[in-house]
Design goal:
It holds the Pfam family Methyltransf_2. One of its GO terms (biological process) is methylation. It comes from Sphingomonas kaistensis. InterPro entries: COMT-like (IPR016461), COMT_C (IPR001077), SAM-dependent_MTases_sf (IPR029063), WH-like_DNA-bd_sf (IPR036388), WH_DNA-bd_sf (IPR036390). The protein is of the alpha/beta class and about 375 residues long. The protein has two domains: about 55-130, Arc Repressor Mutant, subunit A; about 135-365, 3-Layer(aba) Sandwich (Rossmann fold), CATH 3.40.50. It contains 16 helices and nine strands. The chain has helices spanning about 15-30, 30-40, 40-70, 75-80, 85-90, 95-110, 125-130, 135-150, 150-155, 160-165, 180-200, 215-225, 235-240, 280-290, 315-325, 335-340; strands at about 110-115, 120, 205-210, 230-235, 250-255, 265-270, 300-305, 345-350, 360-365. Strand 8 and strand 9 (about 360-365) form a beta hairpin. It is globular. The structure holds S-adenosylmethionine (SAM). S-adenosylmethionine binds near residues 214, 236, 256 and 273.
Length: about 375
């Protein structure tokens, strides 16, 4: 459950509101639309808006085409070798007609491409293949889209749906398979670790504790870059029991909402953890980190944040994902900084990452 309480702005109190209302009336007027399509600059703008509206309307279909492309095995099969329609049908276990429908749809999205009588990957198919964990995430979205089949029902529901049942720490959810969940996290971890490694000099620390670090994938990535660092993992005992220990990584079991964190680490990381928790629990985690850090220690927060810069639509994804999960919410850097200060950190500094859509970074100083 969300526990944020934001006051609603008083109606019409903001000076910009009247201007925005005027703009919206103008855009919605059929005369304005007709005029915009007759004049050249207007026509370009109208086309760009129409395209964007089409994407909004058809986005679910794009996602399902992508899911079918991955789940049918066509992504891997076309990566291995170009295929005729007949071969593609056999690889996907579809009729030739059905595979042609799927491949033409995939081609229109840049996932596949037809050259002569063969099908191969398109530019987006090649990029998908090169993005570690994206295929696993697309398969995992089956649960999210089951919940989003009726988005209003999902938003109105007080208990969890298909996605919430996977996350066994989400309120109201069933016990779930910690290993499956940790595998998904580990599969998608390389693109997240790449953001943190580009943004923060881990080698300037002696001991790093990754809090809620799953199976240790983030620690292994940092360890490769900064081999002198001593590494520690804090996780729920059931996740530790379900995953294999990595050499050189000390494991500490516990619940970060209630248990003290182990001392002696000069850097803590929270990677894709804070946004999973409602405000009360999130503040408890930050306080636990502050209490365990010695003076001079730092906490690095790595996750997609609500201010996504050039890709604000990422908020629609993370906001709805966490709502379906029934726990947490995306927060912007300002909100997280205020929580860090409430938890006792002295100062917070943002660090630029290459892809904020994947993760942004904040460093908190004791
Ligand atoms: C979204 S996953 C992120 C895992 C990893 N940091 C990553 O980015 O791949 C959140 C992690 O927090 C752990 N976690 C959730 N609640 C916890 C708690 N109360 N105490 C300790 N760990 C917890 C989960 O088990 C899970 O591994």
């Amino acid at each position: 459950m969300l526990d944020r309480q934001r006051p609603l702005p008083a109606a019409r109190s903001h000076p910009g509101l009247a201007l925005v209302e005027w703009r919206n009336r103008l855009i919605a007027s059929p005369r304005f639309q007709a005029l915009a399509q007759r004049l050249l600059p207007g026509r370009w703008i109208a086309r760009a808006h129409a395209r964007r509206l089409f994407d909004l309307t058809a986005g679910f279909v794009y996602s399902q085409v992508t899911a079918a492309f991955v789940e049918s095995g066509l992504l891997d099969a076309l990566a291995a070798a170009p295929l005729t329609g007949e071969e593609a049908a056999a690889a996907a276990r579809l009729t030739e007609d059905a595979v042609t429908t799927l491949l033409l749809a995939a081609a229109s999205l840049g996932l596949a491409q037809r050259i002569g009588d063969r099908w191969t990957l398109g530019v987006r198919g090649a990029a998908l293949l090169a993005t570690p964990g994206l295929g696993a995430m697309i398969r995992h979205h089956r649960l999210l889209y089951a919940d989003l089949a009726d988005p209003l029902a999902m938003l109105r529901r007080s208990g969890g749906g298909a996605l919430a049942r996977l996350w066994d720490y989400a309120p109201g959810s069933q016990p779930a398979d910690a290993a499956t969940y940790s595998e998904l996290m580990a599969a998608t971890q390389p693109m997240v670790a790449a953001q943190a490694l580009a943004a923060y000099p881990f080698a300037c620390h002696q001991r790093l504790l990754d809090i809620g670090g799953g199976s240790g994938a983030f620690l292994r990535a940092v360890g490769e870059r900064a081999p002198g660092l001593e590494l520690g993992l804090f996780e729920r005992p059931e996740v530790l029991a379900a995953t294999t220990a990595s050499p050189g990584i000390a494991r500490h079991g516990g619940d970060f909402r209630h248990d003290p964190l182990p001392g002696g680490y000069d850097l803590h990381t929270l990677v894709r953890v804070l946004h999973d928790h409602d405000d009360g629990a999130a503040l408890a985690i930050l306080k636990a980190s502050r209490a365990a850090l010695a003076p001079g220690g730092r906490l690095l927060i790595v996750e997609p944040m609500a201010a996504l810069g050039s890709a604000p639509e990422g908020h629609a994804y993370f906001g709805m994902y966490l709502a379906a999960m029934r726990s947490g919410r995306p927060r912007d850097p300002g909100e997280i900084s205020a929580m860090l200060q409430a938890a006792g950190f002295a100062r917070v500094q943002p660090r630029t990452t290459p892809l904020p859509l994947v993760a942004s970074c904040l460093v908190a100083f004791t």
